[in-house]
Amino acid sequence: MPNQDTDQQGPxxxxxxxxxxxxxxxxxxxxxxxxxxxxxxESPHRxxxxxxxxxxxxxxxxxxxxLAGMVAAIELRKAxxxxxxxxxxxxxxxxCWTLRGGDTYTELGGETQRCEFDRSQYLNPGPWRxxxxxxxxxxxxxxxxxxxxPFIQVNHNAWIHNSRSFEGKPKxxxxxxxxxxxxxxxLLAKATxxxxxxxxxxxxxxxxxxxxxxxxxxxxxxxxxxxxLVASDRRGFAxxxxxxxxxRPEASQPLPMSxxxxxxxxxxxxxxxxxxxxxxxxxxxxxxxxxxxxxxRELGPEIVRFGRKVTEIRQSGSGxxxxxxxxxxxxxxxxxxxxxxxxxxxxxILSQIEMDVGGPMRAAIDAIPYDAAAKVGLQxxxxxxxxxxxxxxxxxxxxxxxxxxSYPSTGFMSPGKGVLLAAYPYGGxxxxxxxxxxxxxxxxxxxDWGSQIHGQTYRDEFETGISVAWHRVPWTLGCAGTWxxxxxxxxxxxxxxxxxxxxxxGEHASYxxxxxxxxxxxxxxxxxxxxxxxxxx
Length: 537
Fold this sequence. Notes:
By secondary structure, the protein is an alpha/beta fold.
C-alpha cells in the first residue's frame, strides 16, 4: 500500500490541490485513494495452484457446491484426491444463480414464487457482472468455454434521480456529470485567477491549471461555465446538430449550480471511477449460472450429492465425520467420512451447525454478520427504455428505496420483451425495508418507484416480476460477509487457518467479499495449504 506522504514529489499543498481536481476530473486520483484505503486491489491470481506430490490416497469432503466448493473439488481431484461434495440445494452454483421462466423459489416464511418470464429472459439474483481484473473467474470462463459478453456499467444517457430535487424529475447522467465538472472547474478557475494560490503553486503551474480547467470544464474564454456549444457537446443539446438548413444546433441550459450541489446527485458519478468498474466488464451469455453449470459438468454427478443438509461436523486426529440429512425428506442423519474437509458453507449457516473446532475459529465464525441485499426483476412487454429513451445498457440511480435500475446489456434493438433489474439496494435501511416486504409488495413498490423515473410507461408495459431478498434465502441468510478492519485484525487469520483437518473457503474468507473472485481465490489458497499438510506428512 503506497504511503501518502512519500510517494509524491513537491509541496503538500500542490498535492492536495491536484487531488481535489482529480476527485472531480478523473479516475487516477480516485484509484490512488481507493488503494490507500485497501479497497481497490487487483486480483493477484496468476493461475490455479500446482498441487504436486504424492497424496497417498487421501480423501477430501467438500461442503457446498458454490464456486468455491466446485473449484476446490476440481483441483483436488486433479491432484489425485478422492473427492466427495455435499450440497443443500438441488442445483450447483450457490449464489451463482439465474432465475428463468418456469423456475420456482421458496423463501423463509414459506412463500413460493414462480418465475413467469419468457424463456429467453432471466434475472441473476446474485452475481451479475465480472470486472476485467478478476483474473481467476475470467480464467475459469476461458478454461471451461463459458461465452462472455460485455456488461455495461456506465451509460451517460441513463438517469440520475433525486425525488426532492428538480421537481422530482430525473436528469440524464451526462447532464449531471457535465454540469458538476463545469461548475466546480469554474470555481477552481476563479480561485486561481484571484491569486489565492500564489503561495501554493508556481506561475507555470497556475497557467497549466487554468488551461486544463478551461478544457476539462468546457469553460468559455472568461472561465465561466454557461450555455455554450462546447458544454452542450457533453451534456446534450437543446436542439441536436442536423443536416441542411435545419442543421444549426442550439445550446442547452445547465442545471442551476446551487440545486445541483444540494441534490447530491453528483455522488453517483464516482461509481464509474471505482477500480472494478473503470473499464470493460463482462457477463456470461444467457445468465451467470453458465459458470456454475460448466464447473458441474467438469465434476460430474458422481461427485456431487444434492439435497444434503449438514447437521454436524466432527473431526479427530485421523479424519472428519459429517452428518447430513436429505433436505427434502428429513429422516435419520447419514454419516460421510473423509481424511480432510473443505467447508464453503456461508458463515450464517455454519454458525448454527454443531462442529468440532477450536475457540479461535469458532469465535471468527460467530463474529461475521452478512450484508442485506434484495433484487427485483421486472419483465416488460417491450424495451421502451431503448425505443423511447435511447438507453442501451447501464444503470440509472435514484434516492428512492429501489436504489438503481439496470438495463440489459444484450439483445439491443430487438422488438421483443426485456427484463430490468428494477431494484437493487445493497446494505443499509433500504435493503432491509425491501427484504421485510412480501414478494408481491416488492414488485408493487418497485413499480411505484420506477414510475417516478420512467413515467406511466413503466406501469403500462409491465408484465410480470420476481424478487429475491437475501436475508430470506434459506441457504445463505444474507448476501455476503461484512468485515470491518477491527474484525479482520481479530478474526480473519483464525477464520482462514486450518483447524486440525478442516479448512474454510468462500467469499467470506477473502479480501474481495461479495465477489465470485474472492470465493475462487479463497478456495485456491485453502486447498494449497491443505495439500501442503498432506504431502508434508
